[in-house]
Amino acid sequence: MNPLLASSPHVITVGAGLLDEALRAQAVPTTPVAWRPPLPGTAAALAAALADPRRHEANALAVGRLTAARPHLVGVRRASELLEAGTFLHAGPPITWERASGPMRGALIGAMLLEGGAADEHEAADRLAAGAVTLRPCHEHGAVGPMAGVVSPSMWLFEVRDDEHGGTAYCSLNEGLGKVLRYGAYGPEVLERLRWMDRVLGPALAATLERTGPIDLRSLIAQALQMGDELHNRNRAATSLLLRELAPAVVEAAPGAAAEVLRFVNGNDHFFLNVGMAAAKAATDAARDVPGSSLVVAMARNGTDFGVQVSGLGGRWFTGPAGVPDGLYLGSYGPEDANPDIGDSTITETSGLGGFAMAASPAIVRFVGGEVADAVRATRSMYEITLAEHPVYQIPGLGFRGTPVGIDVTLVARTGLLPVVNTGIAGRVAGTGQVGAGLVAPPAEAFTRALLALAEANK
Amino acid sequence: MNPLLASSPHVITVGAGLLDEALRAQAVPTTPVAWRPPLPGTAAALAAALADPRRHEANALAVGRLTAARPHLVGVRRASELLEAGTFLHAGPPITWERASGPMRGALIGAMLLEGGAADEHEAADRLAAGAVTLRPCHEHGAVGPMAGVVSPSMWLFEVRDDEHGGTAYCSLNEGLGKVLRYGAYGPEVLERLRWMDRVLGPALAATLERTGPIDLRSLIAQALQMGDELHNRNRAATSLLLRELAPAVVEAAPGAAAEVLRFVNGNDHFFLNVGMAAAKAATDAARDVPGSSLVVAMARNGTDFGVQVSGLGGRWFTGPAGVPDGLYLGSYGPEDANPDIGDSTITETSGLGGFAMAASPAIVRFVGGEVADAVRATRSMYEITLAEHPVYQIPGLGFRGTPVGIDVTLVARTGLLPVVNTGIAGRVAGTGQVGAGLVAPPAEAFTRALLALAEANK
After folding, report:
1. Which of A56, A67, A307, A321, by CA, is between 20 and 30 Å from A210?
2. What is the Cα–Cα distance from B285 to B187, expressed in whole angstroms?
3. Are A372 and B262 inside 8 Å of each other by CB?
4. Cβ <8 Å between B362 and A396
């Protein structure tokens, strides 16, 4: 007799539930296994990447560095101190004026006007098209920028230092809501606000931070997660906690400007976003350049392309077309007004926050759409593509489980689960501003290409 | 044939599950009903109270007024403006020096010293024992006070106005943490802080609120619930949001004191508690004096007795012995150091916050003990003894369900479920200060007595 038939069968079922249901109806014990097909065309590369003997240790080292980072806000500096003349930074992987989307062009035009490089928007656009300014990604200058992420010399930057590994990261100051440069607006009120930020806000904050000394952002972010922020599209708690810390020192460091500075910060719940982005950049940078690691150390979008960088593959970008977010729209705007996904703010997801921490932030669904259960589901699914649970960033509603952190390209390819990103939505026409907020899936190509490069490097 | 046997039986099972299980095992359809015995000795009174034809409408009116209240912080006033000379207020139902617990005596001694009525603690105690000061409950003067709740003329009070019904409620300013008068401490550092509050903090906040105008506390509390506060033992978000609102105006209204005022408020996450207590008092007061209503309009403790007041029964107190909270202790303190439950802060539970809103505040379990699931269970059980779900105070984690609000004495008696109170724990020896925080069940007697009075009033 066939030995298979000598005892009662016990069947392991995989994938769709049909076989499992049929067997159970016949009282055959089964063990169902959740399984998804890997991303198309990745089977061979996946096998090669998984065979890398360095991988396990390299990933443990890389994600250990990411989660051990202790980012502190140490200062505020004018970009002119750090940026060579004639260079503007922008969000996402490298982009040219020709391929730039509406909001990216709008922000570049605004920066050109702010710097006095053109008399009006048409001249600014002409000069940018003619290459009068060198465009470089923020990420290649140790910085990150939300939405268009444009940084020009007379803007100010938060300076964040990782006390564990010594790295430094920068992010621009948040301009507030409505028509703002980062969403591609460049009207007179936008430029006037940026000039006030250059003249008043930047110096006041710089003097304030000299007074407070370094502010522990890891602790502040951990607290904000206990208070319903996910640190990408909800920063209400973090902004409030930071303002509490800064307020007495603002009064002492800049008494003449204190009231307007405090009023400006209080007027914008996203003020902390940029601080948190720099903290995330400092942490993910600590995980860079570990040979053999398949850990994602940056995800970023320029409004045209979505790009990822991987720890074991240096500064190379792996890109795919940026998708259009699905979410809630402001006023009379709708999906037809939306620009494809834009900004370096996906550094929050890369560090285990934002879409990955949505279970900590039930109220976020009022801003990006969906139900509370969707937010919990989103976070739970991200544990399948990440290498660790953050030891300090915890989710009270999941019994204080750490947030999923450390996206592994091989896990993305193997499960077909793409990182959950929650994001603001920029109007596609230059000069519009914000039109909504929602969720967006990154293009699978970016991860597939990174995986192929890992397999190639492994040969 | 007995008509009961002419068709298949369908059995409704009540209480313990034994009968239900036995019938189900025999494939008899059952409808199990959750049921608890009413509080002992309440059956007749319950029948009488439930028979009151006014009850349904009276309760709808009362709880409608409670949830429609729109409390606004309108000012800060010195208690001397409102308090007749020679009177001190205290928390809970009326109490005499003879029956006062350690922390209540400690706070009264401190107030006596603060007012210059005695040269030292012994003289203060002697004079208080001799009746040199009239002791009256805060609640009888439109006020509430946390823990000992002692108010003397040179303390300042938050003034909250209910814009819907026009009522006004007061609460003292929160002193901060550690050794503080409200926990029964009265050392030199306690008195020095109170003198600074009288000289600097009170006037600065009064000038600030004149500048900001009324601050909408209903909106602020609703936001804080979205940010993980339950507004009794967790007020971190509410304190942060209030400080954000006040900060620019503090700078303008009291430039010389702004930094120290902001530093003081930032140093104490419970700063908002007292504001929220006044807001809760304004709302519950709006529900008072509806003839026939069995709604609880106050729960309060003086460290010896726990008392409730009921809408349809005027200003009468129904009391039972205050229990000792069960929770987490600070440092080397333990249950043997704990005083019985004390303070008017149960006004938060009376208005649908605190223990009733714990599901909104998973992080609270780190402060009062237990697991996140316990917090969710506590809130869910309170829907069984309340008349409404708050239309504005919502719990994101329960799909934005309103908090349970409006305790009904008849529902408490019928279910035997007592209100869940989360609270600070005072040291039982006068002068000690805070020793912990935890949960406490009110004495069933207080509710039984109120029910008997309702039945009596109904004759």
Report:
1. A67
2. 35
3. no
4. yes
Tell me if chain A has a CB within 8 Å of the CB of B219: no
Question: For residue A196, how far is the Cα from the chain centroid?
Answer: 27
Residue type, B119: A
Question: In this complex, do A247 and B243 lie within 8 Å of one another by their Cβ atoms?
Answer: yes
Span A403-441, pLDDT tens digits? 999 999 999 999 999 999 999 999 999 888 899 999 999
Interchain contact B207–A (C-beta under 8 A): no
- Looking at chain B from residue 106 to 165, which residues have their Cβ under 8 Å from any Cβ of chain A? none
Within an 8 Å CB–CB cutoff, is residue A222 touching chain B? no
- Which positions in chain B touch A243 (Cβ < 8 Å)? 240, 243-244, 247
Question: In terms of pLDDT, which residue wins out, B34 or B420?
Answer: B420
What domains can you pick out in chain A, each with its CATH number?
3-33 (no CATH), 43-64+288-457 (3.90.1700.10), 68-279 (3.90.1710.10)
pLDDT tens digits along B280-324: 999 999 999 999 999 999 999 999 999 999 999 999 999 999 999
Considering only CB atoms, B259 lies closest to which of A251, A265, A362, namely A251
Tens of pLDDT, residue by residue over A271-307, are 999 999 999 999 999 999 999 999 999 999 999 999 9
Task: Report pLDDT for A356.
Answer: 97
**Residue A266 with chain B: CB contacts under 8 Å:** 244-245, 247-248
